[in-house]
Specification:
Blueprint lengths: L5 E3 L2 H4 L5 E2 L10 E5 L6 E7 L2 E9 L2 E4 L6 E14 L5 E4 L4 E4 L5 E16 L24 E3 L17 E7 L2 E8 L2 E4 L8 E7 L2 E5 L2 E5 L4 E4 L6 E4 L3 E8 L3 H9 L1
Antiparallel strand pairs: 1-18, 2-4, 3-6, 4-5, 5-10, 6-10, 7-8, 7-9, 7-10, 9-11, 12-13, 13-20, 14-19, 15-18, 15-20, 16-17, 16-19
């Protein structure tokens, strides 16, 4: 781990060994009510709190009713299953180990688990603000704001997304409180950062990547998760090319400008 540039989600964290017990929940009050309580032994760990908020949770069983999600949340299911039922559309889907779902600000529905469940949650800062039902301005994808969205980076082909030749190809998946995109790059030498100096959660989908900053370097392999800090000046190198899921806060200026012109 490089304390000044990035932080890796460790094997101990992903396995639940490094998580800590908690009781009553830790986020905005009023957004969710318990229908079937979780069994004793809930655990969690906050990994990062900046422009985005990244934490791991583990609990057994239970079902909650979301009256109104206070902000976007990307969920990566590490163990067990998550079943979401949208109260507006009556849509129901179960997400298994290794799957991802984006739950948008304003979502209403049922969140249910069976057996032991563990997740990585990447949240917008709205989760840490006082509870409100007010939507932010500048929403890019209003048709997606009332239902959850399955995110499968393997099915995304970012062929024409890069704004500069030196940057990886990028495909925009969703834009709102969180910007979710898939990036892909070929094998090559060190390339400069492409994060617009924003904190970013990264999960490598394919390939290996070496990050280097201020003389320190670290290698990440497919499946690894890490957060790069906004002030970092890291460079990326991949011997055989890579594909990654990126989650940042907010919507980039070009998407906001396009929405304002629409």
């Amino acid at each position: 781990m490089n304390g000044s540039s990035w932080v890796r989600l460790t094997d101990e964290q992903m396995s639940g060994e490094a998580l800590e017990p908690y009781g009553e929940g830790v986020l905005s009050d009023g957004y969710m009510v318990s229908k079937t309580p979780h069994e004793p032994g809930q655990k969690m760990l906050v990994v990062f709190a900046g422009e985005i908020w990244v934490a791991l949770y583990e609990f057994t069983g239970g079902e909650n009713i979301a009256t109104f999600f206070p902000g976007d949340e990307l969920v990566y299911v590490v163990a067990g299953t998550l079943t979401l039922t949208d109260s507006r559309r009556s849509e129901m889907r179960t997400f298994d180990q290794g799957e991802r779902v984006l739950i948008p600000k304003g979502w209403q529905g049922s969140w249910a688990n069976e057996g032991l469940y563990r997740e990585v949650a990447v949240c917008s800062r709205d989760w840490l603000r006082p509870y409100t039902r007010t939507f932010q301005d500048g929403i890019v994808d209003p048709e997606r704001r009332t239902t959850f969205l399955a995110v499968d980076p393997r099915g995304v082909s970012p062929e024409a997304g890069a704004s500069h030749a030196a940057e990886p190809r990028s495909a925009h998946v969703h834009g709102g409180d969180l910007l979710v995109r898939v990036v892909e790059d070929d094998a090559g030498d060190w390339s400069s950062s492409f994060r617009d100096d924003r904190d970013v959660f990264v999960q490598l989908i394919r390939g290996d990547v070496v990050l280097r900053d201020d003389g320190y370097s670290e290698k990440f392999a497919a499946g690894d998760c890490f957060i790069v800090f906004g002030h970092a000046s890291e460079r990326w190198r991949s011997p055989n090319g890579y594909k990654a899921l990126l989650v940042q806060a907010g919507v980039p200026a070009d998407f906001r400008d396009a929405a304002a012109r629409a």
